[in-house]
Specification:
Distance between the termini: 36 Å
Largest sheet: none
Structural class: mainly alpha
Number of domains: 1
Strand content: under 5%
Helix content: 55-70%
Length: about 55
């Protein structure tokens, strides 16, 4: 498994509460949910970037 790097995240309290609720709904930790969402966003960005390059 790849080594993970810890860092401090400043986040709006309302956004954090929503992420905590979403994480609980999907049986993830808050940290796991944030990491999952970031990975999804990066994957989508890669798809969009590939589409732009091919046109």
């Amino acid at each position: 498994m790849a080594e993970k790097k810890a860092f401090i995240l400043r986040i709006n309290p309302e956004v954090l509460k929503e992420i905590e609720t979403w994480a609980a709904d999907e049986f993830r930790s808050t940290n796991g949910q944030i990491e999952y969402l970031m990975q999804q966003a990066l994957n989508e960005r890669k798809k969009t970037s590939i589409k732009k390059k091919s046109t």
